[in-house]
Amino acid sequence: xxxxxxxxxxxxxxxxxxxxxxxxxxxxxxxxxxxxxxxxxxxxxxxxxxxxxxxxxxxxxxxxxxxxxxxxxxxxxxxxxxxxxxxxxxxxxxxxxxxxxxxxxxxxxxxxxxxxxxxxxxxxxxxxxxxxxxxxxxxxxxxxxxxxxxxxxxxxxxxxxxxxxxxxxxxxxxxxxxxxxxxxxxxxxxxxxxxxxxxxxxxxxxx
Length: 207
Description:
Distance between the termini: 18 Å
Order of helices and strands: EEEHEHEEEEHEEH
Strand content: 25-35%
Number of strands: 10
Largest sheet: 5 strands, mixed
Oligomer: single chain
Number of helices: 4
Radius of gyration: 17 Å
Strand order of the largest sheet: 3-2-1-4-5
Helix content: 10-25%
């Protein structure tokens, strides 16, 4: 049977769910020096073989040596570009730590009870609004994290997609990176614990 391993790429690290239990362990590469406004994992490309080796050993240490059974369910930041998404998939798949990689944005993982909602998150680069409908990202808008208006984002959330202009949908504020203080009044705040609890039990079929 395939073994699904939930993983989260945050602003600063990669969190991997423990084999037994719902806690997450951090995978950190030594001597990685992130640049301003650039996701830390971009640095993996400079030492790709080394980083893949350490990741494979990390998975072996926590999940055992039967790596061909593993399916990595990777939750990526909401502003991950298509090219970055390809790099992430290829990095993990070619590490030898798994047989397959599935990927979805953080926003898509915020609610299992609602088929339609707005997600709001913040990385080191952007504030991101997403409209999610049946687990699909139907619309997305990015704002420079150093220059944004909370009021404008609130207004934009009401008309992000034609489906929601005349029908209110819930707004979920993703606080996994503990950086959403400006937005607490805009919707239901998802704490780091809440988010990790959601990811600990993940449906790969929806990825």
